[in-house]
Specification:
Layout lengths: L3 H17 L7 H11 L17 H19 L1 H5 L10 H15 L3 H19 L4 H16 L3 H18 L6 H16 L5 H13 L3 H21 L3 H17 L1 H4 L3 H20 L3 H16 L8 H15 L5 H17 L23 H20 L2 H27 L1 H4 L5 H24 L3 H14 L2 H13 L6 H27 L3 H28 L1 H7 L7 H7 L4 E7 L2 E5 L6 E4 L7 H17 L5 H18 L4 H4 L4 E5 L32 E5 L2 H9 L8 E5 L8 H11 L18 H16 L6 E4 L5 H8 L5 E5 L2 E2 L9 E3 L11 E3 H4 L8 E5 L6 E4 L3 E4 H7 L4 E5 L5 H17 L4 H13 L7 H4 L2 E4 L2
Parallel strand pairs: 1-4, 4-5, 6-7, 6-8, 8-12, 12-15
Antiparallel strand pairs: 1-2, 2-3, 9-10, 10-11, 13-14, 15-16
Helix pairs in contact: 1-3, 1-5, 2-3, 3-5, 5-6, 6-7, 7-8, 8-9, 8-25, 9-10, 10-11, 11-12, 11-14, 12-14, 14-15, 15-16, 16-17, 16-18, 17-18, 18-19, 18-21, 19-21, 21-22, 23-26, 24-25, 25-26, 28-29, 33-37, 37-38
């Protein structure tokens, strides 16, 4: 039964492939015409068409599908004997199925997945989404995703099939449920998830499986999984005993188990795990020996080009030789074995000469291409560093950069094809690309050190830009792309609605732990998420097929030209773009400069620890004691030395700084840095804010976009303050307090679990509205208490207000940033729960030029590699706000209200820009000894132009 899917589907495809490749004459044009006439729905929107350039391979697949359809119809009775789910005679479903299997046999996985989805959609229409007869199609797609390393998607589809068989199927065939649990456990095994959850899946499987041979095979796989779990727990000796015992038993059962494909897979995986156990012990020689045995075992199997096992093994062998990089032979071997892995992901390239690199279109769309190219470039650079003179090393670095340039070309193609091959998931592709960009930047920096040139600086800055905020850039590109084509607005609205449905059910699952729901209820919620994610995929599929120019524009992430950045800068402005141990300096009409951060041999994590210490000190107390003040002065000056001392020549004659940070640097208000370590009262200190206007951004591309955009049609202010002094917020507060307990600032709650009232917030928003009215500006709205509802705030954010000012409590969920939120008044509607969450904000089309979040922790959040600070401020910005003012920590209500009134006075009445207005409001607090401590004014930051 474990071979059920392959016996009933793959074997049929294989027989037909073998038969058709014997040289039988065929007319692909005629056969395609017959198929089109028989199943016209299949060919809508796709072009495997003999009149428009159908390839020879496509023609062969059409022939195979036609043969398979005839063969399946004549052989339906015998096929049904092997399968408890009857084959259907529907021509549409079977033609799609045969095309999928045929393309899979040829390793053309984009087309295999495409036709598998068509057959699934047809089955859903015929039988329903939750019918057991549909499950075989879920299972087939799960196998396809598993074969290309998309384990998360594979797990989703297996879990869907399990949900149907466990909760909705009749009781007469639970054996198949056991097989599904075994398949799911194997996916976890392949993904290296050796944990209790994986072992539980094997146990569940064995509860249902009765077939003796199959049960033996699953038991041995379970034993091997236990060995993997022991390796993970550093019990390597015990792990080898377990694995060798499983291997011995497996070989003794070869005669009766070798009929199963999984038999050979398990044999080779046991050898790999034994090798891995030696690697964990530091015994690289034995590890290499076992890994080479592993490669020999799996090369004997008839594997698809997509099989990841041999790629992993070759890359691991290369990595192990690289540990002995000081030995010339080992350095050569590291490059050799990585090059062998590169051959596996190319269709025709077989050279070992790095001067002859593959063409980008020769790659298969395998995600391992990223890692293979990165590893090959890294090992080649390492070999040059250790065994070449300076000139040869420079050449090695140039070659390494050429290798990495292939990644960029490959990445764009991957994104464009992500809808089919990755089910629309791009997060993993962006992560792979992120690591490649980092190594490219390192190569460029190393080359600059031995061959300095402006060209290398700009190449380095290209990579630095691409590292920054890729997901955020995608959000903006999406808005731009919709204006480039005639894509119907109804489709985009439908997309938003589906995303809203996904977010709703993900929130239900997020809150399920507290509710202690049954396994059935949890499964039902997970099934709803799967349902809407598939609906989202289908819609993306439709958009990509019908509006290809929009899809290509959506997936194009190119940094802006340095000249574009400079054109947006004024005289007296300096953009400082930080990344790791370096900073790029961009100003008008001057070449880009590039300087190191940090003094001497200081490590980056030490500097990050200093940032954490400074922020914790400043946000916790006003530091009235002289000892605390002295400690602050020392830390602040040291961070100035870390981040600005190397830039002092560029800082001369500047009035404004634009800071683009990375990692914890996003949490550092540069305004409080001290160029000198002079001791004194806070009001007398020479804070950086005394010298410069300072604003922040996430990426140079987004800064250019913000500078270029002005929304002339905006007017007025929407001022929002729940105040929290009535009972209308108590129920919501109790639920939120429980949910955010591990992550948030508890000062938002009183001892009873209600929100602490913010009486000053009422005065704050009324003053801002009054200021606008006095200036003669209309379109002003005041939303207080019950009027400050979630629905009202959502609506206001999409309307053409110039300013949206939010005064209230907010919460940061560091574990799940999408569930950070703003507390609103309770709502009487069934669709709102009184909290505006980050994932809800992200679906809005915000019109306001400035959103001010006058609340605690509105700028605090999770720091993500290459993606900035995942706080509420970032979410507002990604949803369309051009400028966001926020706070990093809780400030006293009265001072906060006064500060905001001052800020708006400078902006609305005096006509200053946002950065200048914020600086002026801070200087007023600094010049008053009672509020001069950075605790009172440094929390407020501006992201924008």
């Amino acid at each position: 039964m474990i071979k059920m899917h392959r016996v009933t589907l793959l074997s049929l495809g294989c027989l037909i492939v073998s038969f058709s490749l014997l040289g039988q004459a065929f007319d692909p044009g005629n056969e395609l015409t017959q198929l089109q006439q028989r199943t016209p729905e299949i060919w809508k929107g796709i072009k495997p068409d003999h009149s428009s350039g159908m390839t020879a391979t496509d023609a062969r697949m059409v022939h195979i599908a036609a043969q398979g359809l005839r063969h399946a119809s004549s052989n339906e009775a015998s096929t049904t004997q092997h399968n408890p789910i009857s084959r259907q005679s529907d021509a549409y479903v079977q033609t799609c199925e045969q095309l999928s299997l045929a393309f899979q046999q040829q390793g053309l996985m984009e087309k295999a997945i495409y036709f598998a989805n068509l057959s699934l959609e047809a089955a859903i229409q015929q039988f329903g989404e939750n019918d057991v007869q549909t499950c075989r199609y879920y299972q087939h797609i799960a196998e396809l995703f598993s074969s290309i390393g998309e384990y998360t998607l594979s797990i989703d589809y297996y879990q869907k099939a399990i949900y149907v068989w466990e909760y909705l199927a009749p009781e007469n065939n639970k054996e198949h449920l056991g097989e599904l649990y075994a398949f799911l456990a194997t996916i976890h095994f392949k993904h290296g998830r050796f944990d209790t959850a994986m072992l539980d899946l094997y146990k569940k499987s064995l509860q249902y499986i009765r077939n003796t041979n199959l049960r033996t095979l699953v038991e041995l796989e379970y034993q091997a999984a236990q060995g993997g779990t022991k390796i993970k727990g550093r019990e390597t000796t015990a792990a080898r005993q377990t694995l060798m015992s499983a291997d011995s038993m497996l070989r003794s059962y070869q005669e009766r188990l070798s009929q199963y494909d999984k038999y050979y897979w398990l044999r080779s995986e046991i050898v790999r795990l034994i090798g891995y156990s030696y690697k964990s012990d530091g015994n690289h020689d034995l590890c290499i020996r076992y890994y080479k045995d592993y490669v020999q075992l799996i090369e004997k199997q008839d594997l698809s080009i997509w099989d990841t096992r041999i790629l992993l093994a070759l890359m691991e062998i290369g990595e192990l030789y690289n540990h002995r990089r000081n030995e010339k032979n080992a350095a050569d071997s590291s490059v050799y074995f990585t090059h062998k892995a590169l051959h596996k992901v190319c269709r025709t390239y077989r050279s070992f000469d790095l001067n002859q690199l593959p063409n980008p279109d020769d790659f298969v769309n395998h995600p391992y291409v990223y890692g293979i190219l990165r590893q090959l470039a890294r090992f080649h650079q390492s070999r040059g560093l250790n065994f070449a003179d300076e000139a040869e090393y420079g050449t090695a670095l140039e070659t390494a950069l050429k290798i990495m340039s292939l990644v960029d070309k490959f990445h764009i193609y991957q994104l464009e094809n992500a809808i089919v091959l990755r089910g629309g998931r791009i997060e993993e592709l962006i992560k792979h690309h992120f690591y490649c960009l980092g190594i490219s930047l390192y190569f460029a920096q190393s080359l600059y050190e031995i061959r300095p040139s402006q060209e290398i600086v700009e190449e380095a800055y290209y990579y630095a830009q691409k590292i920054k905020a890729q997901k955020l850039m995608l959000a903006y590109i999406k808005a731009d792309a919709s204006g480039l084509t005639d894509i119907p607005d109804a489709l985009l609205q439908k997309e938003k609605q589906i995303m809203s449905d996904i977010q709703y059910w993900e929130k239900q699952l997020h809150d399920a732990g507290e509710a202690k729901l049954s396994d059935l209820k949890l499964a039902q919620i997970a099934d709803q998420i799967f349902h809407f994610k598939r609906a989202y995929f289908q819609l993306q599929f439709e958009i990509a097929g019908n509006y290809p120019s929009y899809w290509r524009a959506l997936m194009t992430i190119e940094p802006v030209n340095v000249r574009d950045i400079q054109n947006q800068l004024e005289e007296g402005e300096l953009l400082l773009d930080y990344l790791g141990g370096m900073v790029f300096l961009v100003e008008k009409n001057k070449p880009v400069q590039f300087a190191p951060n940090f003094a001497g041999e200081v490590k980056q994590n030490e500097v990050y620890a200093r940032i954490d210490s400074l922020i914790e000190m400043v946000k916790s107390a006003p530091m009235y004691r002289s000892s605390s003040r002295e400690q602050f002065i020392q830390l602040s000056h040291r961070l100035y030395q870390d981040y600005l001392s190397h830039c002092e020549s560029a800082l001369k004659n500047k009035q404004k700084l634009i800071i683009i940070g990375e990692g914890p640097v996003f949490l550092l208000p540069f305004e409080l840095l001290l160029p000198e370590a002079t001791y004194g009262q806070f009001s007398a200190l020479n804070f950086l804010v005394r010298r410069y206007e300072i604003s922040y951004h996430y990426a140079p591309s987004l800064f250019v976009k913000a500078r270029a955009m002005r929304k002339a049609h905006l007017s007025g202010v929407f001022a929002f303050a729940p105040v929290y002094d009535e009972t209308n917020t108590s129920n919501t507060a109790s639920a939120v307090r429980t949910r955010f307990l591990p992550f948030s600032n508890f000062r938002a709650f009183d001892d009873a679990g209600n929100y602490n009232p913010l009486p000053e917030s009422e005065h704050e928003v009324k003053s801002i509205v009054e200021m606008m009215e006095q200036s003669g500006t209309g379109n002003n709205t005041l939303a207080l208490r019950t009027q400050a509802s979630e629905g009202a705030l959502k609506q206001a954010l999409t309307e053409p207000y110039h300013y949206v000012h939010i005064a209230g409590h907010s919460f940061s969920d560091l574990k799940n940033p999408q569930f950070s939120g703003i507390a609103c008044s309770s709502s009487d509607t069934l669709t709102e729960d009184g909290v505006l969450y980050a994932n809800e904000i992200s679906q809005l089309n915000i019109q306001a030029d400035l959103v001010t979040i006058s609340s605690c922790e509105s700028g605090y959040g999770q720091v993500a590699d290459g993606d900035g600070l995942l706080g509420l401020n970032r979410t507002f910005f990604s949803a369309g706000a051009q400028n966001v003012v926020f706070s990093l920590w809780k400030v006293y209500d009265q001072i906060s209200a006064s500060f905001m009134e001052d800020f708006y006075t400078w902006v609305m009445v005096e006509g200053l820009d946002y950065a200048a207005g914020l600086r002026a409001a801070k200087l007023r607090l600094i010049n008053d000894p009672a509020t001069a401590s950075p605790h009172f004014w440094a929390a407020y930051m501006l992201v924008g132009r």
